[in-house]
Amino acid sequence: MEHLQETQVDTAVAYEGHFLKVQKDTIRLPDGKTTKREYIKHPGAVVVLPVFDDGSILLERQFRYPLRQVFIEYPAGKIDPGEESLACAKRELLEETGYTATEWQFVCTIHNAIAYSDEHLDIFLARGLTAGDAKLDEGEFLETFKATLPEMLQWIREGKVSDVKTVIGTFWLDKILKGEWTL
């Protein structure tokens, strides 16, 4: 696939905020010409698919400012510097929902915005859930609720669930819970 490779010639930080950094690179195209690429640098994140013993799913409702609406999502969060993905998943599940899990399985890694970001999300399945007290970050507001897999699939079909990590996580969960895919 070398004939498709783009090579970095120069790099610069176009913007650096508290959470995100925007890079502006000069690159050499496969035909030898140069052009610019701007992209968001992201530390990576995790997504947790929390499943109760009865097969129901733990979800969140959270307002997302860029789109000015409340979204239905799985618990998720940014990986801290030096933090392992599984440790982050356990921390985020506890912080956002108050739940802990006794069984953890890695599902997959997804790249949700390949045209303009290097962000990756590691998805984990969590079972053996036990309720506790949430420890939300300062300025974080959300509510948790339970739903069934058929409800989630219907909400995706209807466009009520459009968050990409939640859509992909639900499709994986459908295959896993039906026994069609094993981890």
UniProtKB/TrEMBL annotation:
Residues 40-169 form the Nudix hydrolase domain. Transmembrane segments: none annotated. One of its GO terms (biological process) is nucleoside phosphate metabolic process. One of its GO terms (cellular component) is cytosol. It comes from the Bacteria. It holds the Pfam family NUDIX. It catalyses: GDP-alpha-D-mannose + H2O = alpha-D-mannose 1-phosphate + GMP + 2 H(+). Belongs to the Nudix hydrolase family. NudK subfamily. PANTHER family: NUDIX HYDROLASE DOMAIN-CONTAINING PROTEIN, UDP/ADP-SUGAR PYROPHOSPHATASE. This is GDP-mannose pyrophosphatase. It comes from Noviherbaspirillum galbum.
